[in-house]
Design a protein that fits this description.
2 helices, Endo/exonu/phosph_ase_sf, alpha+beta, 21% helix
């Protein structure tokens, strides 16, 4: 197949197609970070460790629309507070349920502040 699949399915969902996943190309060494788990939204972390490269933490998240955005940001902040950001390159991607095309959207501004504060 050429890839490893790491996934986290949404618990207690009536939808059969809910959750997040990451495809990692075979030959790229990675570790699933099980200590970064959230109950309110899907959050899946892996750490990639390649020779001669700084370790890379990759997080894929999916915030459901019903989850308060500030609660979401606080949870991500708790996770990042437990990550040594000086030693690990960090990438967070996924569905934040924010209309990023609207420049004056307060959620977009808050997401930008969050990213700047954590240098991500």
């Amino acid at each position: 197949m050429g890839y490893s699949i790491v996934r986290k399915d949404r618990q207690n969902s009536s939808k059969a197609c809910s959750g997040v996943l990451i495809y990692v190309r075979d030959g790229i060494p990675f570790i699933r970070q099980a200590n970064f788990v959230e109950d309110n939204f899907e959050c899946l972390w892996i750490e990639i460790n390649r020779r001669f490269c700084k370790p890379m933490a990759v997080d894929v998240v999916c915030r459901p629309g019903y989850l308060n955005f500030e609660d979401f940001v606080k949870a991500l902040t708790r996770i990042l507070d437990n990550t040594d950001l000086d030693k690990v390159e960090t990438i967070i991607l996924g569905d934040f349920y924010v209309d990023y095309s609207a420049k004056k959207n307060p959620l977009r501004c808050r997401l930008d502040e969050f990213a700047l504060f954590h240098s991500i």
